[in-house]
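Repro:
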Amino acid sequence: MHRYFALAALWASVACAFPALASSDYDSCMNNAQGDFDIAKCNNDEVSREMRKIQSRLSSIMTNKYFTQWNDQTLSSSQNFQTLLKQWIDYRNKYCSLYSYTFSQGIGTITDVQKSQCMLDLTNRFASNVEAIVKIYNDMAVTKR
């Protein structure tokens, strides 16, 4: 019982920190979750939804002339964005695996909840960071006019 209270408190803090990022599907899923397996599934489904949004947003900005200047001599800008996303996903997955294992020593279903919550938190943070890049670019474009 204490574990569910802790998870509810954790979810509330995440929802407050990223209110625009939580989907109504996620809220509905969490409201109907019956245990750890359901909570982890809700988190994983929301991670998938957020990743589709991130991929779409990165695809749209990688075609912008301003961002095509951001590359090294050997890669196109789109490859840089794809590499950035792939490396970030690798980092997120490894970090959350370590975090969840450390939290529960790999015992019980709470490991899956901790890993999926970690992945959701980091994915939401990354989505916010991508939007910050776009906002900064838009603000700078207006300033230069």
